[in-house]
Amino acid sequence: MDLKKQPAIIMAVNFAIAMLLYMAERWFFFWMNHATFQDVTFSDMLTICGGGVRFDVSALCYLNILCIALQTVPGKWRDRVVYQRIVKYIFLVINTIGIFMNVADVVYFDFGGRRTTATFFSEFGNENNIGKILLQSITEYWQVWIFGVASIFALWKFYYNPISRDKHPDDYAPNAVYYPVHSLVFVVAMTLAIGGLRGGYDLSMHPIRQDSADIYCKKPVQAAIVLNTPFTVLTTIHKKGYRNLDYYPSEQLATIFDPVHQPADSAVMRKKNIVIILMESFSREYVGYFNKDLDGGKFEGYTPFLDSLLGQSYCFVNSFANGIRSVDCMPAVFAGIPRFVEPYCYYFYSNNTLQGLPEMLGNEGYKCAFFHGAPNTTLGFKGFTNSIGFPDYYGMEEFNDESEFDGTWSIWDEPFFQYFAHETDRISKEGKPFLVTVFSASSHNPFKVPAKYDDGRFPDGEIPMHKAVRYADYSLRKYFETVKQYDWYKNTIFVFTADHTGPGSRLEYANEYGRFRIPVFFYTPGGELPAKCDSTRLMQQMDITPTLLSMIGYDKPYFSFGKNVFEQDSAKFVNYAFNDLHGQTMYYLDTLMIQYKDDELMGIFEYQKDCELKNNLLERRGEFSQLPFMESHVKAMMQTYVEGMKKNALTADKSLSK
C-alpha cells in the first residue's frame, strides 16, 4: 500500500498547506496594521500565533468538512482520477474564498477595528457602489491584493495529489481488511474534525467563539490577530445582527443620553482597595432582609449572614441585574455594558474594545485579579477578564486540589472563598492597592452541598436551590471571619451582587420585574458609607463601576451605560435602570416602569405598588408626565448601544459623542 497516495493523506497534506497559508496571512495582517499593534512584541506574537492555530484549525474544518468526508469515507472510488479531480476543485474553490476573505479583512480592519463578521452582508447589502469601493481599495492597498493573489496561487500551485491513474482491483487489500481499516480512518478523521471545529475535546468548555481569542492577548484589539475572518464569518452567519435604530440623528444622541462620564473638577484619587463578590444565581427573593413583609412577617429567608451584613451596609430596595445569564453579568459589572437582545460575550461584537474597571485601575497602579472556582475554560470568563484588564486569573487549575471539587461544576464555595481570602492577603503584601473579584459557584445546579454538611446544618427549603443558598451564605460568613483579621480589611470597599436571579418559588417575583431583582450593596468597614437601605435610588449592575470610580475619586473620562448612583448633581442625575429580556426592554425611572418591544410601548406599570405587574396602565399613558422623557431616554440608550457596537465606539475616546 502506497501511503502517500491514500486520499486521507492527500487531505491531511493539503489541510497543512492551508494552515501554513493562514499563518502567513496572520503575520501579514499584523505587519499591515502595525500602527494599531505597536505594543505587540515578538514574544507576544508567538503566544498569539499559538492561540491562532486553534482558530485556523476550526475555520479550515468548517470550510473543508465536506472534503474531509469525501477523502475518508470508505470506498474504492476515492482512488479514481476523476473523483480526485472533483474533490480537488471543491477544495480549491472553497479555500480560495476563505483566503480572499482573510486577506481582504486586512483592509477592512482599519475601518472597523475588528475582524469582519456575518454582519458585513447586512450592513453593506444595500450599498449600490460596493464595486467602486472594492476597486478603490485595490488601488490604495495594492500590496494587500498582491499578497492575496500570491496566497491563492500558492494554494493552487502546491495542491498535493499524487494519484495519476486509477487503481487496479488487485491493488486493494481484501474487503475484509479494506473496509474495517478505512472505516476506522473515517471515524478517526471525523472525530478529529469535530474536535477541530470545537477548539478541543474538553466537555466542560463551550466551543471556541470570538471572545475565546482574548485568552491569548493583552488587549481586546489584539484578538483580531489571533482570529481569522472565515472563522468570524462562519460562526456568526446563523445570527441576526442588530437592526439599525434611527430614532434620532446620531449627532443628537449625546444630548439625550451620553455614556461618557466626565470626572468632577474636585476628583482626587483615593486608592482604596476594592473587593467585588459575585454570587451565582443569588435572587433577592432568597434574602430575608429584603422580604420581611412576606408570609405575614414570618419569612426568614435563607441568608442569615447576608442579612446581618446588609444591616451594616449601604443597600438598595430596588437593585437589578442587567441580564439573565452569568456572561451578561461580567460586561455589566466591569464595563457598564448591559445585555441588549443578545449576550454581549456571545454576539458579533464581542471583540470590541471596552473600557473595563480593572484596566482603568491597573493604569492607576492597582493590582487586579479575578477568582472563579470552575475549570478555567468555563463560560469564556478567562478570555473576557483578560480583555478588560485582569492580568491574573485564579481558577480550578490554580487552586490545584481536586479533593474539594464538587464533582460537577467547581470547587466548593467554602474552601475557594478561603483560598480567595488568603491569596488576597498575599496580593496586599505587594504594597499596591488592589481590585480583586470572586465569582461563587456552589449555588448552581445541581444545588448540592458537601457531604460533610448533610447533617441537617443546611435544611431543605421549598426548592433544592434554597439548601445551596444556605451553604453559600455560610461560606460568605467564613470568608468574612477570615478577612477581618487582615490589615487591609478596613481600607477596603466590599461590593456584593449576584450574576442573575436563580430558580424561584415566590409568586411576587415571577414576572419581568422580579426576574431581574438581585441584591447589590456596598459594605465599607472603614465607615465611608452609612448603614442604609435606600428606597429611592435605583441600582443596577452596570452602575457598580461608575459608583466605585466616584467613591475613589477617579479623575479621567470613561464610558459606561451605567450611572454613579451617588451623583450629587441633581440636575444631571437620572434615576433609571435598564434590562432586556429577549428583545423586550424594561426601563425604570423612579417609581414607573415601561416595557418596550419592536418600537412599540407595550406596558406602563407602577411597579413599587404593583410588584406582580398585574395592572398595565398603558391606556392611561396621558396621565404620566414623565413618560415622554422615559421614551426618549430609553430610545437614545438603545440607539447609542447599537451604533456603538457596530462602530466599535465603546470607549471615551471613540464614543459617538466625540
Describe this structure in a few short sentences.
With 658 residues, the protein is an alpha/beta fold.
Task: Explain this structure.
This protein has about 650 residues and is an alpha/beta fold. The chain folds into 2 domains: about 5-235, no CATH class; about 250-525 and about 540-645, Alkaline Phosphatase, subunit A (3-Layer(aba) Sandwich), CATH 3.40.720.10. The protein has helices at about 5-30, 40-70, 80-110, 120-125, 130-140, 140-155, 175-200, 225, 230-235, 255, 305-310, 325-335, 355-360, 380-385, 395-400, 415-430, 465-485, 545-550, 625-645; strands spanning about 260, 275-280, 315, 320, 365-370, 390-395, 435-440, 490-500, 520-525, 530-535, 540, 560, 575-580, 585-590, 590-595, 600-605. It has an 8-stranded mixed beta sheet, with helices on both faces. The protein has a 4-stranded antiparallel beta sheet with strand order 13-14-15-16, with helices on one face. Strands 1-12 form a two-stranded antiparallel sheet. Strand 14 and strand 15 (about 590-595) form a beta hairpin. The longest helix is centred in the N-terminal third of the chain and has 32 residues, at about 80-110. The radius of gyration is 28 Å and the shape is globular. Mean pLDDT is about 90; it is low at about 125-130.
